[in-house]
Amino acid sequence: MLSKHKDICMSVEKEPTFFLKKDLKCGLRQYLTLFSLCKDESYCGESSPLYSETTSFPNTPENIYNFNSKSKIIYIVREPFSRFSSVYKQTMSSGHWYKKKYYPVLMSKFFNKAVFHYPAYIEATKYWTHIQNYRKFFPDSQIKVLMFDDMVNNHKNTMRDICVFLNISYDNAISDKNVDKNEGLVKIMYSPKMFKIFSLIPSAIRAKVPLDLKRRVVKFFRPSSIYEAELTEEEKEKVRLILKQEVEGLYSYLGLEEDVWNFIK
Question: What confidence tens digit (pLDDT) does each residue in 115-155 have?
Fold first, then answer.
């Protein structure tokens, strides 16, 4: 949606993860080519979710600051349990259980084990810790924390808030229509052979495939679809104990007096 604004130019590659590097000099020239289509827009931006995982990748906030101390940080947070479910579909479909990706360990195929032992779950959901790590380098005026539900249920107000944060005009043309959404409904189990075939299709063409067609393809591959997974009540309580202070810190930072996620009991 941001890429549709006339004052914003987003990177050609959606998630370059460049600032996870320890040495930014390595690959900097290649990184800058991702913005070769940018002209005189007010902002150049990119969206790499791993930048928010400051305990797994502690150099990231400082790297971004050293690259551009005036950077604006937009951080989208989601109710932990629904986030876990989404992460499971994403990591299973992208093969985190098949080969190591970003982290030094393989992810278990079993949801209940993955939640407690793979960094992409609980560790990545330590919202208040991650926000504080960015606040070491950036003032609050350069950090915008958004609630995922607000973005989904009222994207116009959310986009308006972002435009205010970036000090650019709000454009009514910015909407969630005709946007290629990363939906769980179109996730299927990672298959090295199948994904090798899919990788031969240029990304520009894949991006134009209608969502309905993607869903039909998933239905065809239904035997390989990712199953729904749930934590037991005991496991949920364990998660709440681990993340209680993280969620409370986030609520306080956002000025929320109610438990909007019904997470803290």
Answer: 999 999 999 999 999 999 999 999 999 999 999 999 989 88
Q: Which residue, chain included where needed, has tokens 């994403």? A: 90
Burial of 44 (0-12, 13-18, 19+ CB in 10 A): middle
- Report the SS3 class of residue 75: strand
The tokens of 42 are what?
A: 């007010």
Report the C-alpha gap between 106 and 99 in whole angstroms.
Answer: 6
Can you name the CATH fold of 2-88+127-174+243-254? Rossmann fold (3.40.50)
Q: How many CA atoms lie within 13 A of 174 on its CB side?
A: 23
For residue 185, the Cα-to-chain-centroid distance in whole angstroms is 17
Pick the closest to residue 53 from 131, 108, 116 (CA basis): 131
Domain residues of the chain, as ranges? 2-88+127-174+243-254
